[in-house]
Design brief:
globular, UspA, 2 domains, about 100 residues, Rossmann fold, about 10% strand, mainly alpha, two-stranded parallel ribbon
Length: about 100
């Protein structure tokens, strides 16, 4: 394995671990009595979200924003726009 391949593999493992921690922390904030499930997927964000929704026949996609200012938040990011455009599911964007 080359140094580049090794470093890339280590970076990917690190990002996967960070993603798992983010999901664990988010799930801990869900009120008791609510059955929350988390999933960690890899890929292009909008495509991965839409494909996951189709595969799992979800009822609702909830997305957040990056905390941009009021003028910038008036325009959705490309991931939000793509998810709204390419899916048939109800989508809620929280600002």
């Amino acid at each position: 394995m080359s140094v580049d391949s090794y470093l890339l593999n280590e970076i990917l493992k690190s990002h996967h671990h960070m993603g798992e921690n983010i999901l664990k922390n988010a799930k801990e904030k869900v009120p008791s009595g609510i059955d929350a499930k988390t999933y960690l997927e890899e890929g292009t964000p909008s495509t991965t979200i839409v494909n996951f929704a189709k595969k799992n026949n979800v009822d609702l996609i909830i997305m957040g924003t990056r905390g941009l200012g009021s003028i910038q938040s008036a325009l959705l990011g490309s991931v939000s726009q793509d998810v709204i455009h390419y899916n048939r599911y109800l989508t809620s964007i929280s600002t």
